[in-house]
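Q: Okay, next protein. This is Molybdopterin-dependent oxidoreductase from Mycolicibacterium pallens. I've checked the sequence twice, so it should be correct. Can you predict the 3D structure?
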Amino acid sequence: MQTVRSFCRVCTSVCGILVDVDGDQVLRVRGDQDHPFSQGYTCAKGRALPLLHHHPARLEKPRMRVDGQLQDTSWDVCLDDLATRLKAIIDERGPQSVAFYFSTMESAGFRMAEALHAAIGTPAKFSPLTIDGTAKPLVSDLVGGFMGLSGRTDLDNCDFLMLVGINPVVSHGHAISMPNPTGTVRDIAKRGQVWVVDPRHTETARLATGHLAPRPSTDHAVLAYLVREILRDGRKTDVPVQGLAELTAAVEPFTLEHTATLCDVAETELTTLLAAVRSARCVAIETGTGVTMTAERGNVTQWLAWVLMILTGAMNRPGGTWFHPGFAYQLEAFGEFLPVTPIEGAFGPGPRSRPEAQAFINEWPCAVLPDEIAAGNIRALINVGGSLVTSFPETGKLIPALQHLEVFATTEIVNNDTTELATHVLPTKDPLERPDITLHDILSSRVSVQHTPAVVAPVGERRSMWWVFADLGRRLGYDVGSLGDPDRSTDDDVLSVLLAGARCSFEDVVAKGWAEAPRDLPAQWVDDHIGRMGGWRLAPPLLVDQLAALKPMPAALVMVPRRQRKKLNGQLDFLGESAEIMINPDDGAAAGVAGGRPVTVRSANGELTGVARLDESIRRGVVSIPHGHHEANVNRLTSKDDIDTVTGMVRYSGTPVSLHPA
């Protein structure tokens, strides 16, 4: 037996792990005590990597649909057929008829797929961004003038943390990277205060010093009330700002009485939270999918969270929020050339079938894919590691659309509902079979880039994802070889190209296993950037207008999303997390639903059936449904037409539903 040092790629916390192997058998995964960030911590999902590697439904050979049936085949036959059919579609209908969906933690494969997408020249690009996360880059752009302002809480020095719509004890944070979340939250609560704003008394709320449970989709009102009162007190900082008068007018309606009524909370609870905010040195705020999945409400909630941090002096200051300067690139090196986005934002033309939608960060909303296929605009889809069936909205419209494609190629490691719809299934190396570096260097709070060798050899005929797209590009006649040559390059050769020009050499990262970017607070490059644009933009017109246009939620019962300890999106079904539908006992009694029994949840768009869990930790009027289940697919309740037209974000939280005994 040997032990190999690696890092987990199940989520963005990328914890350090030690993997025990015996030949081609992966025996155990445990935490790496010497890792500078996770320090020996692992979660159930990370420790399940051996089970994922030895999954009974793992894919080992390319598959191709012949006469309506998927059959095992060779790489040459599969890629030749795929390239031939793609080329015919491009020649006949143009490059815009080919779409890509990007969803993978594999760095080399992701970058090579991006290169192929650029070489084909299609505007049709999709990613999970418009399923769970558009509010954060939107607010970075509109308030901070730069989408690359990736804010992270200074967890080591924070003494007042507000967690809005996020349950890091289970999720490890929504792109905030929080290994050992239980210990982290406890430490902050010991030296200061942790407040949780969530309609459920979550696992994180149990560790907090305060909890507020507003009606779902009213988080923005809580923050608007706090901002209103802080403005009346006088802001705590002299950092340059603009739009103060417009902001004051925008939040003026959110009096104590109005906010308490809108959120259905006691006035005393709001004043207690306000007193805590007033007494704080500065207020650090983290939001998660409970916020970002509420479409336009997520935009205004994220905006007001940033505003509250600006007004209390948390931005770019110790104990507040620091902004990652990048590792593969260095933002401070741009100096006065760091771009400043117009206050109106930067958007582009969207799909022809949905004129109300637009492109955001050069991506189209995932919700428009079925309409683009039905209109004949998209005839081929290349899926880069995504579980479309368990992640895209309105499954009842998505599946027929995917079946209507001429080409649907997908990379994957385990057979699932999405691969069963494909025309070409491309088996790629799993996380333990490939050398790798962390994909998004700005997602980590401390460690910016890590490297791992391959832990075991790939099973069957699995190939590196970058090789698959490089070889496909070559067969299509495109030059994507600047990242790597499919005939001569190794995985590490491609990874070294990705770190060319980084803060340290690829060889240094390999030797040590990780490298860090500077974590200066305050960082001069951030202050300089904000100064050049005239101060933080407190009142972008787009967000002010969205706040003013919000109406009270009319439904008595609405759905909210939830993550689980032993499941991540469509992965890790084998760990036994059932699709429990969490319901307040009073709502269950009103609907005649019994705990532990099947319950059907219906919306205007569809229905799903799961097991009812009657739980007093969740407030009345809320039905909490976990992500990623095939048998109780939450996407069946959502609508491809119910999106924020600014960003294309689908409404996953706040959808009206009803309960019925199954």
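A: Here is a summary of the prediction. The chain has a mean pLDDT of 94. The radius of gyration is 24 Å.
Q: Noted. On to the next one.
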